[in-house]
Specification:
The structure is a homodimer. Chain A contains 10 helices and 5 strands; from the N terminus they run E-H-E-H-E-H-E-H-E-H-H-H-H-H-H. By secondary structure, chain A is of the alpha/beta class. The first copy, chain A, folds into 2 domains: 142 residues, Response regulator (Rossmann fold, 3-Layer(aba) Sandwich); 63 residues, Arc Repressor Mutant, subunit A. In chain A, strands 2-1-3-4-5 form a 5-stranded parallel beta sheet, with helices on both faces. In chain A, strand 4, helix 4 and strand 5 form a beta-alpha-beta unit. In chain A, helix 4 packs across helix 6, helix 7 crosses helix 9 and helix 8 crosses helix 9. Chain A is elongated, with a radius of gyration of 25 Å. The N and C termini of chain A lie far apart (50 Å). Chain A binds a DNA duplex through helix 7 and helix 9.
Amino acid sequence: MNIKIAIADDQKLFRKGITALIKSFEHMQVVFEAENGLELLALCESSANKPDIILLDLSMPEMNGLDALKLLKEKYPLIRVIILSSHEVESFILATIQAGANGYLAKNAEPEEVEQAIREVYKNDFYFTLPMLEIMRKGLVKKANIIKLDDQDNLTNREKEVLSLICKQMNSNEIADKLFLSNRTVEGHRNNLLLKTKSRNTAGLVLYALKHKLFDLDTLSN
Amino acid sequence: MNIKIAIADDQKLFRKGITALIKSFEHMQVVFEAENGLELLALCESSANKPDIILLDLSMPEMNGLDALKLLKEKYPLIRVIILSSHEVESFILATIQAGANGYLAKNAEPEEVEQAIREVYKNDFYFTLPMLEIMRKGLVKKANIIKLDDQDNLTNREKEVLSLICKQMNSNEIADKLFLSNRTVEGHRNNLLLKTKSRNTAGLVLYALKHKLFDLDTLSN
DNA sequence: ACACAACCAGGTATTTTTACCTAGTTGCTG
DNA sequence: CAGCAACTAGGTAAAAATACCTGGTTGTGT
């Protein structure tokens, strides 16, 4: 049985080249080409011949690759997507993985690697080169280490207490009631919090609290 | 030049077996063995002959592998660590990667794979098998998918735009400037956001945005 | 053509937050 | 004991957010 492939790239010549290349591989066929994200989605919608794997360029007009990827994965979770990359930044690459990309292929890769990538993704849902894996690993590690650096958070217990109540969407009066304080006192704490955390307002305080893991998103009902 | 290796495992026989195995590989030597995490750290401390790579069992008495790994990476960030795993759960595996593990090796792996893993880690800082990579990928993706369930968030694009700026600690006037709107309009959006998200104030909006992954903590500077 | 949702923008009034002050009490430490 | 940090609490004023209104425009779908 053939592996059905679709290609989305804004450069016609590139599309045609890849198509020709894929034709030279055994048991593969290109079912359609798209020149931007919108067209890709439309073709996936209309085509009776759904692709198994899509080769997706990230930088396209109309709708870029990342947005297209997200929508694709939402509507057709079974379709595997291999990202065609020129020279993207790490955060963008991570975003595509988080959006569900199944593989990554540099645009200057060898033809053999294209074939290998497609077959691996078809078999294992998965193909990444070593540098990519290194980036992924960094991405995994990063989250745990965002803070840790400036961690001496200086906040006193009372301040942390007030901050936690702020994060529960209480205003100063309510907090004062709860802690048996004057609202002026609470305002004082609040002010110190703004200074110490270098925040501009309540939004900043909430972000600070979450970033520094003073407590967890899940514990705050909404 | 030889690759210097240390082994930490609580089973003596296993240690000796691996040591023997490694002796059979070219340009490798075992510099010491430890039977638990504490001993491993002590030996790293005292030994003049620091290992390049440590083969580390996760389940050990006294101090388990994960804790040992964390301390190791803190003190000796240059030492690479390959985890020896029997049958750990995913979350534990991810924890080791976040703690800086450079590779993962199943205890029932083929001898050739041990050699390959060591050489790859020595060369690339990095060796993971396909199933491991799959787990890593899931780990990366998971975070992005916590919500999604109740996702019909009703928020219009404009509202999301305003919300994102609120989360960047902007006030209504600043948002109005940025979006070329009247501040009254922004206030209108803001009000709708409060209603739709059932929030009481800015803190609630930020929490909502984060909970529903409208964007990521990391992307919001603080 | 009509309904409807999204978007925009104004008014008025109240509440809350922010900014910038002062100052007393408590408890710990050199 | 002196010094300091944490906690408390007050005043005044300006800025921002909230509550509750109104009404217009635009685009989409029926």
